[in-house]
Every structure is written in C-alpha cells, then in structure tokens.
C-alpha cells in the first residue's frame, strides 16, 4: 500500500487523538477479566432483586441491598438521596474528570406472569388498589449491572484517572401523584450532579425485541418527551329527549377529540421529527337518556423537540377552547409535563461509539426514535450524557417477545455481562480521554 503525506498525517493525528482510549484499552483487558469473575454474583443479585421488587419511592429494601454491597467493595455510599436513592463516589488514584453512571431501582404495579423460579410474588398498595409488583421494565438488571460495574472498577481504583459516581435512582416510573418531585429531577435538586461536579453521564436500559447483547443508541433526540393532558368540558345538563334545553358536553368533547387529530397531521413538520397526540380516556354520563353536565378527556403528548412540544401544548389549548366556546360550553385544559426529550449529546456519542463497538463488536446498531420516555434526560440537561439500550431478547424471539412493562416481560440474562462491560469501559475510556487532555494541556505549557 502506498503511503502518501496525507495518510501519514492522518495516522499521526489519530495517534494523538487516541491517546486517551489507548490508556483506557490497557484497562479493557482487566475489565473483561473482572467482569467475567463477577458474573455469578451479577446473576444472583439480579434474581434476588427480581424476586423482591418495590414500587417507586418505596425502594427501601433495594437500597439496603445496594448499600451492603457497595460497602463490601470499600465504598462509602450516601443514602436517602431523593428519598430512597443511593450515591457512591469512587475516587481514582490519578487525577481526571468525573463521570456518573446511573441505574434506576423501581418496579411496576404489574402481576408477574413469567414462569421463573425467582418470579415475583410481591404485592403492594397502588393508588388505593392491591396490586402485584414486578420488575417489568428490567430495573432489577440495571441495579445488578451497576453493582457489578462498581465491583469491577473498585478493584483497580488506583489506576483510574478521575472519579466515578454511582447513582442508584428511585422512582424512574414516576412517584405517586401526591409525592411531588421525584426520581432523577429530585436527585439533581439534592445535588447529585455536584461535589464533585459531573462532567459526563452514562446510562443503559434493557430493551425487549432487541437481540441479546446488542447495544442500540442514537445521537441527538432519542426518546420522547411525555406530557399528560386533561380537558374538562362543562356543558349544561338536560334530558336526553330535549337536548335543545342544554349544552351537550359529549358532543363538544367528541369534536375536540376529532380536532386534536389534526395537530400532528396538519400542523407538525413531520419531515423533521414525529409527534403523537393520543386520547386515552373519555369519561362522561351515567344513563341513556340523561345528557350529562361534564365530559373529561385525558391523553398523552409525545414529542422530540422542545419547540414542537410547546407548539402542540398551545394548539391543544386553542382547539379545546375554540370548540367549547363555539358550542357555548366551558372548558378547562391542564397539561402536565413529565419527562423532557432524552437527547444524547452528539459529540459525546461520537466519542464513545468506538468504545461500544469494542465492547460488542458487530452488535452496535443505531436505534429508531423511541416514543417512550425516560427521566435520564434530567442528568443530560446538567452534563453531556449518553443513554443506550441493551438487547435482552434471544434472537429467535425478536419481534414476538412481550414488550417492557408487560406481565410477560422476560430478560435473557446472557446479555447482562455486556451491560457491565459497557458501563465500565464507557467510564474508563471517557476518564482516560479527559486525563489525556489534561496531560496534553500541561505538556503544551
Ligand atoms: Ni424503565
């Protein structure tokens, strides 16, 4: 092969550019060895957590389980962060940046339908009802993976160029309504991204119908913002045989439902990013011949861009108010914002992609946009962040496996070691590149 000046320069540049990852790679072999060694515990921890799930903001036993292990690894975890959250800081033996790794801890009010020796039989009270509790979104695996990552990294902490913060977060699925701010947002309010200040943050989520061990990612907008809206139409009650004596809220609300369909189809530039407006509840009336006084609509809005999100909110309000006023009804529109768009920092994503490809060669794929939401977003608004999915469905089941949140949600545990290697390598490669930058700055002076 002919080498010309240009390619020689490229080679030289890429040597400089990879000064960090090379440092990371010297630890990559170590990470592989230690990840393999921790595998039996990883699986045992996951099964224990799976069998003992706890609802959002109720993760007290989960927190104790985490704390015991972190202490055994020589860490000094802080407890009670955002109610039941746990945070531990691992200060490496060499100077460098600070990276945060996050796992969510909570389970769902779902009655487990999977036939497993460690299936959950737990029950709890949820919004006044007795419910089954299940790790139907795989947060049990996230906790086990992050514990195993902590186990791996603590074993060579003297060689780590920087600091790793382990964040075990409660209430990702949302706290009970009367408990106010929760989860990631509350952890941040309580200072989890400060002292030491976090420079970058990584998280992963297990995802059904992605093949076991495959990692999917997306640069920029990835998961949707999810907002809940409620529209209360007040008409005038009357007998069903004499509608002219009243104002029918069912007809008004029906027109609102129809017109809401025009927001996405007529007003959103769908060549850029999609959006969704869905009505999930329509409540009104009690009897065939009584026109009721009120009708209530509840729905969800999913968007991938803050401006589109704000525009849709304004249109929902305007449509409801316009239709109600035309019919002589009153209307009240409430829109509750939950999680903003989860958006992966493009520069960080590009920087870490080689790491992911090294962890899962040939199994790193770009994801489509995901219309589900995730509160990892709040960390990403404090520091550049990268959130990825880890496939947990055996290849022959892909496309047929029950989705996350299903009572039949199933995790192929063979994927979990990839999760540990992904988080450990992301942390070390990021820190090594930052440490290399610091060295280069010093050398340049
Ligand atoms: Ni989840």
Structural account:
A hairpin with a 2-residue loop joins strand 4 and strand 5. The strands form 5 sheets. An 8-stranded mixed beta sheet has the order 1-2-6-3-7-18-8-17, with helices on both faces. The chain has a 4-stranded antiparallel beta sheet with strand order 12-14-10-15, covered by helices on one side. A two-stranded antiparallel ribbon has the order 4-5. The protein has helices at 5-17, 19-51, 60-72, 139-154, 183-189, 249-267, 306-327, 346-359, 377-380, 416-444; strands spanning 78-81, 85-91, 94-104, 123-126, 129-132, 161-169, 200-211, 215-217, 220-223, 225-234, 238-239, 276-284, 290-291, 294-303, 330-339, 342-344, 364-366, 385-393. It is 38% helix and 26% strand. Residues 1-22 have low confidence and may be disordered. The chain has 445 residues and is α+β, with helices and mostly antiparallel strands. The protein is built from 10 helices and 18 strands. The radius of gyration is 25 Å and the shape is elongated. The protein has 2 domains: 5-222 and 342-444, Zn peptidases (Aminopeptidase, 3-Layer(aba) Sandwich); 225-339, Alpha-Beta Plaits (2-Layer Sandwich), CATH 3.30.70.360. Bound molecules: nickel (II) ion (NI). Nickel (II) ion is lined by residues 137, 139, 172, 205. The site of nickel (II) ion has 4 residues, from loops.
